[in-house]
Amino acid sequence: MKLAKGSRVAVLTSGGDAPGMNAALRGVARVGTELGFDVVGVEEGFQGLVEGRFVPVSLRSLDEAARRGGTVLGTARCKVFPTPEGQKRAREQIEANMIRGLVVIGGNGSLTGARTLVGFETSHGPLLVGGVPASIDNDLGCTSMAIGVDTAMNTIVDACDRILDTAAAHRRTFLVEVMGRDCGYLAMTAGIAAGADAVIVPEIGKSEDEIVDQVYRTVERAYAGSDARRRVLVIKAEGVKIDAAKLKERVDALVADRLKDVDSRVTVLGHVVRGGTPTAFDRLLGARLANAAVRAIGDGMSDFMAGWYGPGMKTPPCNYDPYVVLPNLGDVLTETQNLMRGESMIAQWRKRVYQEVESILNR
Fold first, then answer.
1. Catalytic: 137?
2. What's the pTM value of the predicted model, to 2 decimals?
């Protein structure tokens, strides 16, 4: 049954922030208002939901915020929400504030939290829950792209372009570590775009010795022969279980005798990758996913995520946007686990591509 005009729809951002979250918030607020809903924000994610921190949304403020990174509502890791007591308190706040729809913008943990609220019967009718994927790691199932990925990738490429300038000037090897948790997507895509000489991702499953050997051979090959280079760029995903400083130390020990005038540096980009102005794509992605999510809730749908259509999708595009799918949240969480275990079709394809790219980059 469709939501009646005047129904209250809440939106929250949870987990790690991602550039484009504010654009998604703006999309929820603008589309929801256009459909006649009373849209409210929840401060500090699920922590705010437990505490009943509902606030009015300002369309004008969100217009300004949409071009900035971070999230104006704030986000927090909530320890109490996963507990039965925390979820009980959240339901009480939902009931007390007459919430009929809830849009959760975030990653795997956020969508897991959203699903615990599916099926809650308020005195005003069933709570309708929809998710919007936002994670720079691109480690969510049932969506080919999450909000924040494109901006993070562009940030890494821009940083690497700058690093390569100084690397070439000093004949240096740079080991650059990027975020991505246990997923190597950011490292590999940014590495290809930036012209890296090697990319190290966890999906390949190499041992520490094999990784050291790979980097050593990359350095040796780059500086040898008539077409020797003046710089080497190696991008390492944070999920690779060898510290960047230790990797540098071991590689330096191997090249010390053969390449005496070549030195190396480590740059850990860290949270720089999370921030910054969202790209046009991330702004549009946030707006389009939010549009579909709010319209689906308005039409009475629940227990879904608005995902970006792409390879491996089992759900057809929705009626609101030919590039948006609305898979069941349970299927999203299952596919996400399969992706992280390397068992999904997309995970297997990525691993194969990563293996193929390794020798291509080294040429």
1. yes
2. 0.94
